[in-house]
Amino acid sequence: MKKTLAVLALLLTFSVVSVAQKFGYVDSKYILSHVPEYQEAQKQINSLSNQWQKEIEAKYETIEKLEKAFQAEKILLTEDMRKKREEEIEEKRKEAKELQKTKFGVDGELFQKREELIKPIQDAIYNAIQEVASQSALMVVFDKANHSNILYSNPKHDISDKVLKKMGLKPGEVLEEESEEEGNGGEEKPGTDGKSGGAGGKSGGDRVPAKGEKTAPKGGGK
Which one, 136, 151, 217, 218, has least CB within 10 Å? Predict the structure, then answer.
């Protein structure tokens, strides 16, 4: 009976160890920080974002000047002249909002540019993770970055460096990230008159997505 229990306990231990070895994790931010193409893509996205934001701000500044001039001259204008000036200001405000939506809105040019530049990198990382997971017989790979629910992770299960090597990159050489902000879109430009604006929010932190998801990528104990 004791021998039977001992054998069962041993089998249970092997089973637990076997299951534990079928799980691994990556740190998507750590991986992305090693990819030169990602850093270059971020620079391009930030540059476009800043350029478009300046264009939008210039339009709102023009509108603000027109409004101030209108208020100062309003008492001297005829009803038709006032109506014409109000329509002119409203038209320019619509143009500014439309430009903002085109550049920073959902499926806008900034989103499309990010998809164009970032998605191939994400796909490459996902494929590398898939290969490493297959070679290591891992059933599931978690992403430690971006609000992960992993409360503790043993560094020996971190396969981030293996993924980097699979991509032909050298672990440990973290590239400097851009600190510039990029646009995330809004409907209005912030200002004293209640308008709000286009760009804000950092562009970093893209993660390598699960298969079929749009966007996962520091690892501990490398």
Answer: 151
